[in-house]
Amino acid sequence: MSTTLSERLTQELNSLREGGLLIHPRVLERANRARTRVDGREVVNLASNNYLGFADHPALKAKAESYLREWGVGAGAVRTIAGTLSIHEALERQIADFKHTGSALVLHSGFTTNQGVLGALLREGDLVVSDELNHASIIDGLRLTKATKKVFKHADVDDLDRVLSENDSEGLKLVVTDGVFSMDGDVAPLDRLVAVARKHGAVTYVDDAHGSGVMGAQGRGTVHHFGFEYADDVIQVGTLSKAWGGVGGYAAGHGDLRQLLINRARPYLFSTAQAPATVGALSAALEEVQRDPGLMERLWDNTRYFKAELHTLGFDTMGSVTPITPVVFGEAPAAFEASRRLFGEGVFAVGLGFPTVPRGSARIRNIVTSEHTKDDLDHALQAYAKVGRALGIIGG
Ligand SMILES: *Cc1c(COP(=O)(O)O)cnc(C)c1O
């Protein structure tokens, strides 16, 4: 007898339930803002990736609306058939100019960008060396390739050097890293990673999902921050779904990269082009971050303030240096309990435990945005103090 669908669903859900891994997403009842309404409660929102408040920004909404009126709700086809609108190409030129790269291509999401670019670039016999904490979409993207895959210890340049010394290839060698790591909030040591990659003739591939709109002058990203934006041996990919407020992904770098991706990146070839309203919003996001320096200033002022106050209270933020601010609670049940209690105090921040993060470093991940007021952050800090003391994480 074969397994019925009911049996399969029940088995799988039970095993998740027994492992405490069953997910029940909270539901936002208003737009994703610094203060919003979640599951019936008014909260300070520290759970979003909405670094610059672009998810609900008037300038983005205005351009999205105008593109919607002029261009309609859908692109009507995949890019390679009849879905490439001039607004797609204009957005790509805007991204290449912003990133100072020879070319850029827009895809549907950061997730599909990694699948598309890694899949298009890598062949059997190539060597990929990937940071152990890289994002799931990189891991899945690499699974689609026949390249030889090796892992180096997180942000450990000596270990990367060792792996590249022990493994050679006649083909392309690619070092893959996140720019900013999403769970820890630390920054890849790109200056030293690129130097080691170059020593071995390898190209560096940076997924800057959490770095674009956050790091570098005017939010140009981690690669810009380290001064490699003009380098032809550094590929930048990322998302348009976090700081940029919409949804999408991009790949930027060498002048010929775009042309190859147009021909080989499977999500680009086989999935309908981005909707006009989204293209409008993203175009406005790139204009706005360059027009309004206050966005980045407020983001970083809020980041420094929130971290300093958490340290004063006695919390461990894992040495994070970006707006991603983890607070360590030890084991997963403690982090989940803390998240529940914070929610009761009107603070929305998500608990993360094994297997999302290593055992013993279960945490609540907070993301500070430019749109939080000092009152919002103080409200969150008071809640943290109360919950941290009640759970014995901090003294006092
Ligand atoms: C969030 C994230 C992605 C996925 O981006 P989406 O546009 O949301 O699909 C890819 N890579 C990294 C490093 C991320 O943090």
TrEMBL record:
<protein>
    <submittedName>
        <fullName>BioF/Kbl family PLP-dependent acyltransferase</fullName>
        <ecNumber>2.3.1.-</ecNumber>
    </submittedName>
</protein>
<dbReference type="InterPro" id="IPR050087">
    <property type="entry name" value="AON_synthase_class-II"/>
</dbReference>
<dbReference type="InterPro" id="IPR015421">
    <property type="entry name" value="PyrdxlP-dep_Trfase_major"/>
</dbReference>
<comment type="similarity">
    <text>Belongs to the class-II pyridoxal-phosphate-dependent aminotransferase family.</text>
</comment>
<dbReference type="InterPro" id="IPR004839">
    <property type="entry name" value="Aminotransferase_I/II_large"/>
</dbReference>
<keyword id="KW-0663">Pyridoxal phosphate</keyword>
<dbReference type="InterPro" id="IPR015422">
    <property type="entry name" value="PyrdxlP-dep_Trfase_small"/>
</dbReference>
<feature type="domain" description="Aminotransferase class I/classII large">
    <location>
        <begin position="42"/>
        <end position="383"/>
    </location>
</feature>
<comment type="subunit">
    <text>Homodimer.</text>
</comment>
<dbReference type="InterPro" id="IPR015424">
    <property type="entry name" value="PyrdxlP-dep_Trfase"/>
</dbReference>
<dbReference type="InterPro" id="IPR010962">
    <property type="entry name" value="AONS_Archaea/Firmicutes"/>
</dbReference>
<dbReference type="InterPro" id="IPR001917">
    <property type="entry name" value="Aminotrans_II_pyridoxalP_BS"/>
</dbReference>
<keyword id="KW-0808">Transferase</keyword>
<dbReference type="Pfam" id="PF00155">
    <property type="entry name" value="Aminotran_1_2"/>
</dbReference>
<dbReference type="GO" id="GO:0016746">
    <property type="term" value="F:acyltransferase activity"/>
</dbReference>
<keyword id="KW-0012">Acyltransferase</keyword>
